[in-house]
Amino acid sequence: MKLPKTIEIMGHTFTVEEYPDSIAVDESLGTGHFMSGMIALRNGMSDDVKLSTLFHEAIHMAARATSLEMSESQISIAAIAAVSVHRAFGEVT
After folding, report:
1. Helix extents (H) in 1-93
2. Which fold would CATH assign to domain 6-88?
3. pTM for the complete prediction?
4. How far apart are CA 68 and CA 62, in angstroms?
5. What is the 8-class DSSP label of residue 24?
6. Are 71 and 49 spatial neighbours (Cβ–Cβ below 8 Å)?
């Protein structure tokens, strides 16, 4: 799956990058940095996991942009729902 170079979330532009497993500092599959406008995903994930992780990080950025407090579990559930809706449109096979 080809990732977008940038995504627009709540009026903020974020670059989307992949990073190699070799420089990962923990078990996370992705990270987002609101102030620097960057979302980074671990390289080598399946398309399904990559898409879910991108949605997960995008939801973190939307929550931050709106000062909405969401737990990690709430973010994860919202990402799963977003992937389900995305699949319903036939975008992911």
Report:
1. 47-65, 72-88
2. Zincin-like (3.30.2010)
3. 0.88
4. 8
5. -
6. no
